[in-house]
Amino acid sequence: MAAQRTQTLVLIGHGMVGHRLLEALAERGALADPAVPGGPGWQVTVLAEEDVPAYDRVHLSSVFTGTDPNQLGLSTPEFLSGHGIDLRLGDPAEHIDPAARTVTTTSGAVVPYDALVLATGSYPFVPPIPGADAAGCFTYRTLYDVDALTRYAEQAGTGVVIGGGLLGLEAAGALRTLGLTTHVVEFAPRLMPLQVDDGGAAALRATIESMGVAVHTGVGAAEVETDADGKACLLKLSNGERLPADVVVFSAGVRPRDRLAREAGLAVGDRGGVAVDEHCRTTDPYVYAIGECAQTSDGRVYGLVAPGYQMAEAVADQLAGSGATVFTGADTSTKLKLLGADVASFGDPFADGRDGGPRATEIVFSDGREGVYKKLLLGPEGQLLGGILVGDAEAYGSLKPHAGRRLPGPPEAFLLPAGAAGAEPPGADALPDDAVVCSCHNVTKGAVAAAITEHGLTDIGGVKRCTKAGTGCGGCAGTLQAVLDAAGVERSRGLCEHFPELTRPEIYELVRTEHIRSYTELMERYGSGGGTGGSDADAGGGAGAGAVRGAGGNAGAGCVVCKPVVANVLGTLAPELGLRHVLDGEQAALQDSNDLFLANLQKNGTYSVVPRVPGGEITPEQLIALGEVARDHGLYSKITGGQRIDLFGARKEELPAIWRRLIAAGLESGQAYGKSLRTVKSCVGSRFCRFGQGDSVQLAIDLELRYRGLRAPHKIKGGVSGCLRECAEARGKDIGVIATAGGWNLYVCGNGGTRPRHADLLASDLSAAGLFALIDRFLMYYVRTGERLERTSAWLERLGGETDGAGETDGARGLARLREVLIEDSLGICAELEAQMDRHVAAYRDEWQAVLDDPAALARFEPHVAGVEFLEPGRGRAAVLADGTEAALFRNGDGEVYAVGNRDPFSGADVIADGIMGSRDGAPVVASPLHKQEFDLRTGACLDDPSVALPVLPVPTARP
Predict the structure, then answer these.
(1) What is the CA 488 to chain-centroid distance, rounded?
(2) Which tens digits make up the pLDDT trace of 361-379?
(3) Within a 10 A sphere around the Cβ of 334, how many other Cβ atoms?
């Protein structure tokens, strides 16, 4: 149905799937050129019900956490005007006349069409119970719903979500974010009944309930009871129980919006949905239906966005003339995070031999302590039929492409925790070329491999740009890296493009032995490149609005990888180099946002403050001071797993005032923001416990005060238990100490997280002096030899790869290597390591106090810079332009100034000015401090996702 002349296409609905159709038509060159009246192509009119253009409903819940709704937008005025698309917001279709080929809107407008596409989506199902329409009852599908719910929740205390599926749990997360006591009611006997089985649901429920959300399964909603004002106040359940309910959110499924098709005489499915063929064409050859409103040729209605995108591609092919793409069904695999829990399912997660299908053999791994449940289903011939992953979905990217095929290795390799015997799944070379590695954009392994060869790709970013794989949910990133590895693409041994031949340990040794005192000196002597891409002419144009040239040095060099690493090394070696503070001079331009503001950046752009509480011991006066600070600054307070108190929600300009009050109470920086010692957790030990064999509290305090401020390749955590009952969980720490009748046992290289590992016993029955000496050596050896972001557990296993020891694990060989170096002194460096630690202890200074004593450092905490003349080379600052727009300004070493929007398009937080400035492939870039996506400062384009960009703004002139 390719348009040889200008023809009219009417699209009813401008949601995610409808907008994807417009993009697909534009990609195929099928839209009419507005500059060529009467020329070939489709002239599109879009009839939209909402008063805003298409937006990302998948991430709708992010609005509850501060994302600006505008950041969810999928369309731009430039796209619409450039393709002559007539978007009519707030004027939905009311009637279709197939005989006349016209659509009448609610305003009375009559729009003719040559082809019509229905993309009307679905509507939420609200069970017909008394009180369902009372004030305080909501659905959760649109930006309007989010706004209304947010405003109403300000006066509410308790909320109930009816429905425990995907959307229901998202809604529960939203209520919890809004500060409501939250309940989930699910009629089925388990949560997420369409995605997980009983075992997976039990693990998911335990995780959700541990976060304070009450779960009620196997029970339905019977009535919403109201107060005298007609507002919801109680929810009566089918078992007679009553729950407090100031807010009720209905999330009990959706129904296809097929009214227009029904009234127009088009065929619909028995359970709803406009019936379509494999080309998504309805029973009227001029009318198509895509997305959640369509019942496809396999008899299903798909409620996920990825199948909707595939339907849009099929219709675009029809309208463009080729008709090659068909839709006969879709992969409904899902991987997402709900209320902090990873959940994934793929293939047929319930294959049991019913309906003539193959009967499955189940292989299950379950760890109730960690909330982990994994199940694979294998057919009679060993083929992978499906699977469920809850709590740990890391294997999703490796397993999903094998659905319907025999696994290339034992199933245990995909299920067991990392590091366990037999837990090494086969690589990407075991995948066939037709295996889909990115289901969001239907990209196969073969397509990725071909792009790698054709374009000479060397990293995941290049794969994303060329194939779109990995730009959807991101769950396939590990598989994409595996395909790169299988294609023979060598991972550079160096740190980054600026230090391609140097690893972190090698940089550390150069700085230490050659007394290099700055990033600039290191770059000049050992770096590669260092320019920031030069002028706007390099970006394809003349001098643009977003850049003003000056003169100067080379401060824009480097990147988000090497700058923090060098900052970390300089911080560790500061006593040796005569450096004072991590924010002195050029060092400030190297720091990531956490270290720059000495606090933890949160997803909404605010910061958390964590003072040090050595060993978990705190005075009543300090507790009162913390409470008063939290109250006066409106901060959320939480006791952490490391026995500290975390204060959330501080703006960066508030931080110095908060620090002053905490320091006055005898507290100091806990360095929760740095790659450094975090905490040393303790039990009460022999002070109170009748089983205690040692004073674990005092030892934990002494350890934390000795090693505070020590910067390392990654964070370090410690624990001290007063007896073998191990109440401080010391064997889950990088440094674990347990009291014995003969002294102290030292365990090293343990950690929790996604790859938990028990620490190994390094030495037994040590005296306190012997314990500290050995820990001194251990930490300084790790600081010297650890790679970037390498935890001690991974470091130990890497050390094990350097020695022989047939039959031993890498950890056992690594432990043997540590004993050789740290106890037997095989390298002759033990005294040197201890002396270096002594110098670190002597030079320690509280970093918060150091900022308060330095007016230049304090100036960086002002919310906005007064003018470009106050910009530091290589560092950004926020500024308010004359029209009220908040800009992120950056000055490179040559004096060139760039101005872009300060709002991070992925999170909606105003944080771009706090990102690290550097260069990538010669282009001047800034990395978002939240998730490190990089943006070209000349054009605003995101180099990791071409569909996203920052606005380029005019650079304000310097004051005379």
Answers:
(1) 29
(2) 888 888 877 788 999 999 8
(3) 19
